[in-house]
Amino acid sequence: MRILIVDDSAMMRAMIKRVIKLADVPVDAILEASNGAEGLEILKKHEVNLLLTDINMPVMTGAEMLREISMNERWRGLSRVIISTDGSTVRREEAADLDVRCYLEKPFSPEVLRDVLNELADNELAETD
Amino acid sequence: MSSTNSRTTNLPKLTDPEAASAMFEAVRSVAEQSFFAVAEPSDDRSFGVASTQVRGWLVATVRFEQGPLVGSVSCTLPERLANGLFDAFTGRDPGEPEPVSTMVHDLVGEFSNMVCGAWLTRVESGRTFTLSHPSVEPAGQPGRAGDLRLVAAIDDLPVAVDLHLSTLRRANGAPHA
Q1: How many domains does chain A fold into?
Q2: Integer CA distances (angstroms), A69 to A76, A80, B123, in order
């Protein structure tokens, strides 16, 4: 599985990477971006299976990036997870319209993220079988 | 637990005790869930006494906009606590090299970002919001209290969280002071 982490906090990206490595998921590569625009550039150049993205970021927000992704057929199979401080019902409903599979609200414990990753990896394997 | 002035009574559907209670719950959830730290309520006197033992502080500020609510949240915490939170968040072993200050500042910014977001979600879960990238500055002592100040202790070290309201917007979007 190839994973892209998009968050403007380098420490949050490092924490997510650490949890990915501790989780029991097959990982081929972990890519990083600090905003939505950088995230889109990486998606154009690399094959990615799972996107973990923040919402509130400078330059391009996670919501704007997800809107771009949802309009492009190329990324139809990309699993999308939001990791954000914004836990509003409006944002959650918006995420559902953008084919987001999971909405993780900050703060969260590493175990919660690990469980989400394991579940997504299981689904990914089941779909490829 | 909190010091307030009259401006917070202008908060839509929000009273001072509700705002302060939601702020403490935000701090507690962030400290416990992401930093494995214990947050306890404090008071101005205890905060003042504990502050005299602190040599250096970090102040992390996040600006927010949530419909009619526009302002900022500043978290002021001792550098020593920031380093402890860094180790808990990243899993750094005490035997590893000390983190550089930019990494600790990024971490404290993320702490403030999470506190602000958790507070906004608690006071108005039906409305989305935008947050600025956090700014983090060292300080010799805690700054002036905001429109609402919450004081707490995280792992027995003093922390202040200040809410500043810059404008409250009318329903038609026109801001007024």
Answers
A1: 1
A2: 8, 10, 31
Average pLDDT of span B57-76: 93
ipTM comes to 0.86
Q: Tell me the CATH number at A95.
A: 3.40.50.2300
* A127 lies in some domain: no
Q: Name the residue among B114, B125, B131 with its Cβ closest to that of A88.
A: B125
pTM of the model: 0.87
Q: How far is CA A65 from CA A48, A68, A95, B123, B134, in A?
A: 15, 5, 12, 27, 21
How far does B32 lie from chain A, in Å, by closest CA?
9
Q: What angle do CA A13, A19, A20 make, to 5 degrees?
A: 85
Structural domain count of chain B: 1
Provide the residue range defining the domain that includes B51.
2-169
Which residues on A lie below 8 Å from B108 (Cβ)?
A: none
Interface with chain B: mutation pick from A7, A19, A85, A97, highest number of B CBs within 10 Å: A85
Residue A51 near residue A6, CB atoms below 8 Å: yes
In a domain, A128, yes or no: no
What is the nearest CA distance from A21 to chain B, expressed in angstroms? 13
Give the pLDDT confidence of B132-149 residue by residue, as tens digits.
999 999 999 888 888 889
**Residue A99: is it exposed, middle or buried by C-beta count within 10 angstroms (0-12/13-18/19+)?**
middle
Domain around A23: 2-120
Please state, rounded to an integer, the average pLDDT across all residues of chain A.
92
Task: Identify the pLDDT of residue A129.
Answer: 61
Closest chain A C-alpha to B141 CA, distance in angstroms: 26
Q: Smallest Cβ distance to A87: which of B30, B121, B131?
A: B121
